[in-house]
Design a protein that fits this description.
With about 250 residues, the protein is an alpha/beta fold. The chain has one domain: Rossmann fold (3-Layer(aba) Sandwich). It has nine helices and ten strands. The strands form two sheets. It has a six-stranded mixed beta sheet, sandwiched between helices. Helix 4 (about 115-125) crosses helix 5.
């Protein structure tokens, strides 16, 4: 399998606090990788290393086989155009309408005409089923709608990889299911690869092609989600119960 992103032997510490300890993971082209772990185990730090907001102390980050480390800011920004990041809060600009929020990355990073920007905005809103929200303000959106608009803004620049930071946090089960299926639909229709940090087993059961688990800075599991319950590791048994996996697997159908 060709890899879109590779983190190889990545180490990161803040003083004496080791956050990532020789971590390696890969996301294949068109693949969804789910990243689990307790709070403070380095999940967000790994995402920030991948996007270039943090620099690993050692190791390598490869995007389509090319190193993202030691790039100039201009070179890094060019690579970032192909990597989308969906923040936990959706991070919409409150003072901008939905249309203006979606146009912002196009104006800032590309040279599209006004007509092309308009077409792109309408196209992505159609993909997230919110065509009628184009001229409303973020304060008028529900939590689920904000997630959809945040996702629309992420895909409008046609990235090859999306990094999701807890995409379903704070959402009710029905909206969680809708957002999770939307992630899958975008993966299929746009051939986007995804690295998804989540604690939500319903979301993971819907989206995950494979999963990894971080604990104390190390990867302690990598494989299919259903294989987690077969492991004898105490942390995994405490973190994932077979009943929870089975329940959420059943609720993810449809």
């Amino acid at each position: 399998m060709a890899y879109i992103i590779e983190a190889l032997n990545v180490c990161k510490a803040f003083g004496s606090n080791v956050i990532l300890d020789d971590v390696s993971c890969q996301v294949g082209a068109g693949e969804n990788l789910v990243l689990f772990g307790k709070s403070g185990t380095g999940k967000s730090v790994l995402l920030k290393c991948i996007i270039g907001l943090l620099t690993p102390d050692s190791g390598e980050i490869l995007f389509e086989g090319k190193s993202l480390l030691n790039l100039s800011l201009k070179e890094l920004n060019e690579q970032r155009k192909m990597i989308g990041f969906l923040f936990q809060s959706a991070a919409l600009y409150d003072s901008m309408s939905v249309r203006e929020n979606l146009e912002f990355p196009l104006i800032r990073n590309f040279k599209f005409s006004a007509a092309d920007r308009e077409k792109k905005v309408k196209d992505v809103l159609e993909k997230v089923s919110l065509e009628n929200a184009i001229d409303i303000m973020p304060s008028e959106l529900s939590g689920g709608m904000k997630k959809r608009i945040g996702l629309a803004r992420t895909i409008i620049s046609e990235p090859k990889l999306i990094l999701y930071d807890e995409p379903t946090t704070g959402l009710d089960p029905i909206t969680t299911k809708e957002i999770s299926h939307l992630i899958n639909n975008l993966q299929r229709d746009l051939k986007i690869s995804s690295l998804i940090v989540t604690h939500d087993l319903m979301c993971a059961n819907i989206v995950a092609d494979k999963a990894i688990v971080l604990n104390e800075g190390k990867i302690i599991f990598e494989g299919k989600l259903e294989e987690l319950t077969k492991k004898e590791d105490k942390f995994l048994k405490d973190f994932f119960s077979p009943e929870e996996i089975q329940h959420n697997s059943g609720s993810s159908n449809g």
